[in-house]
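USER:
Make up one protein:

ASSISTANT:
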Amino acid sequence: MEEGGGTMDTVRAWLERQGLGQYGPTFERNDVDLDLLESLTEADLEKLGVSLGHRKRLLKAIVEQGARRTEPVGRIPSIESTTAAGERRQVTVLFCDLVDSVRLSRDRDPEEFRAIMAAYHGVVARSVHRYEGYVAQIQGDGVVAYFGYPLAHESEADRAVQAGLAIMSALAVMVPGGEVRLSARAGIASGLVVVSHILAPEKSAVGDTPNLAHRLQGVASPGEVLVTDRVRVLAGGAFDYEDRGHPSLKGVGDTVRVWRVVGRVARRAGSRPPPVMVSPRWSAANRRSACSSTAGNSRGPAEGRQC
């Protein structure tokens, strides 16, 4: 694996650049080299004796390294490629869906329903733009937004989660026409996508990440924002969560650990983070899972179980 000037890198050198060179000998003794870094989970790092704070730092560095490696060395990639191959980007995708839209369309005059949908779309768009995301698609009552494309930041997951919470808060107090209350649900996932006008129009992202975000919102309850474990790690402890275990997602199975965002962390400076909450209705399912030893705590794998 080459990096920077083209010299062969080592896992010890990579760890030293992260300020964690003390773990170099341990990684080498356990035959963990550079090509295995992206397959490491938080549980793996714990077994290697890496402390909690250092596990979080390493997982974030691994994700960021994967994003950098998709860009050619020595040149800045264009915002939008016109080739069929498209542009590979690390993106956080938010998929938001309006609850009971079919009932609303059936019970109301078309013009009234159009006004309701316009109000809903306006709330979502303003919330996404507030945190510098990009509204990529509006598919009826579903809205897809990207954080990390076309405008990139260092805190895409954090911005996406804040946007999701802002959408739910705004809808909770909005009453279009003075008589109907709206609610939505959202799913957020982070990962590698390909963006191309050839592969998909209107800057649509192709890959597993948009599909995963869509499946997450499908299992969310009204008013909920669900995220993957990778999003939780990338958000850097800025939010409180409720562990939802490994629900069965259509086309995905039960390999992804899911969390409900409770809200922004509110604590005094110097205080310890609050514990992760576990919903009683999900704890039984966690106990039945093959990886029950990791259920109900925050030390699970970053995007799927490793038993």
